[in-house]
Amino acid sequence: LAPMPAVAQQAPAALPCTGNINVVRLSEIKPGMMQKFLDAAAAQKAWYKAAGTSDRVGVLRIMEQDPTTKAYSLSETEAITTHIMPPNHGAGPAHDAGYDAFVAMFKESSTIKTAYLTCMATM
Hints:
It is a single chain. This protein is an alpha+beta fold. It is built from two helices and five strands. Strand 3 and strand 4 (72-85) form a beta hairpin. Helix 1 (34-50) runs antiparallel to helix 2 (97-109). The model is unreliable at 1-12 (pLDDT under 50).
């Protein structure tokens, strides 16, 4: 995995990848803001769908295990997002008010701790 600057929003146009590009981010969720973070991801997914792209957006909820009880719970302080783009995605659709809205929701609810730009090998 190659770390990338947290501010990067789109994959560069020319990448050495013949498969899907996947932006993977680990985010720290601000106190009490998990639902807003999930709403931001849903808005991002809807925005790309409305733009007619085949991009896929998802949230991976991190599960934490209690050391004493061994019971699992969903983290309210961290989450992983994925944004899978098709090969030759380029810059993607032009940003508009809808794009700005979901980006603002992410900024209000979280801070990106780490981001990676990955190449999903075709098999």
